[in-house]
Design a protein that fits this description.
Order of helices and strands: HHHHHHHHHHHHHH
Largest sheet: none
CATH topology: ADP-ribosylglycohydrolase fold
CATH class: Mainly Alpha
Shape: globular
Length: 322
């Protein structure tokens, strides 16, 4: 993988939950790094409480707010699941080619699946297997494919496409349709990706809320106010949970703690919340204890990849190769 090396935090401290937005390109790079780092942090934090109920979490952990591993996968502290693994597959494919090449992404997914990862969603497995066996790059539309597997891994596609709306839609929906071809999954990916773009550009919470409200207006199933309380792998439940805690809290930590203590598909809700909240709060908003608790190789790669993906994006004057 081509890499620009690890990135040190550029944001000023976040004081008492107050968001501080550094100006200029370095501030944008910082928030891109934090978005990808947020995926890994949320994944590692949420893996412990995946498939648990809120009452089970309270009984066992009180408030779960440390990256301790365990969970149903019995992970070592700091290890991540398929959310981060598949995100890194997309990042490596883009950085290797210098462009968004769907077949390169599919090949990375296939190599990852062959490595026998401990956690692979059923819909993701089926889509990757269809590519491996039939060369299929677009899964047929399926009413049962409204899971969150495409949404959880889309951060690299969003970062690389900042500044080019056509590239953004092609990359985000292209990677999604390798495994998930459903209107609700598509709508969720596009909305979350636009929110990441807005946050990286320094837009405020009210602007991001308008994007979420537009999704609800187009697809009322996503209504999250009042919060219905479900945190399953259904993409509607996932975004309802992410949006509820993002818009009702004032720090990265409070957002992520709220999300993962809902249990359910907690590694994925954590990863997606981390993607959006990271882009909003920046690296300094992510608790240092969580960053240090991540597997060092994962932490180094997501930080370097987040910076490099943004630096080669159209927003930084690097037009997409035809």
């Amino acid at each position: 993988m081509s890499s620009s090396g690890p990135v040190s935090p550029q944001s000023p401290p976040v004081d008492g939950g107050r968001r501080v937005v550094p100006a200029g390109p370095e501030g944008m790079i910082d928030r891109a790094v934090a978005s990808f780092l947020g995926v890994a942090v949320g994944d590692a934090l949420g893996a412990t409480t995946e498939f648990m109920t809120p009452s089970e979490i309270r009984e066992k952990h009180g408030v779960h707010d440390r990256i301790t591993g365990g969970g149903w996968l019995r992970l070592k502290p700091g290890k991540v699941t398929d959310d981060t693994d598949m995100s890194l597959c997309i990042a490596r494919a883009i950085l290797e080619k210098g462009t968004f090449d769907l077949r390169a992404v599919a090949e990375r997914f296939a190599a990852w699946l062959r490595s026998s990862p401990p956690d692979v969603g059923a819909t993701c497995r089926k889509g990757i297997r269809d590519y491996m066996l039939k060369g299929q790059l677009v899964s047929p539309p399926n009413e049962w494919d409204a899971g969150n597997g495409a949404l959880m891994r889309m951060a690299p596609a969003a970062l690389f496409s900042l500044g080019d709306d056509a590239l953004f839609e092609r990359a985000v929906i292209g990677q999604a349709h390798l495994t998930h071809n459903h209107p609700l999954s598509d709508a969720a990916c596009l909305c979350a990706g636009r929110m990441v773009h807005l946050a990286i550009r320094g837009e405020g919470r009210s602007r991001l809320r308008r994007e979420a409200d537009a999704l609800v207006a187009a697809h009322p199933d996503f209504r999250f106010d009042p919060y219905p309380g479900e945190a399953s792998g259904y993409v509607v439940h996932t975004l309802q949970t992410v949006f509820h805690f993002f818009f009702s809290t004032r720090s990265f930590e409070d957002c992520l703690v709220g999300v993962v203590n809902r249990g359910g598909d907690a590694d994925t809700t954590g990863a997606i919340a981390g993607m959006i909240a990271g882009a909003y709060y920046g690296v300094a908003g992510i608790p240092d204890r969580w960053r240090k608790a991540l597997d060092p190789a994962v932490r180094t790669e997501v930080e370097a990849s987040g910076a490099h993906l943004l630096r080669i994006s159209p927003a930084f004057g690097r037009p997409e190769a035809s």
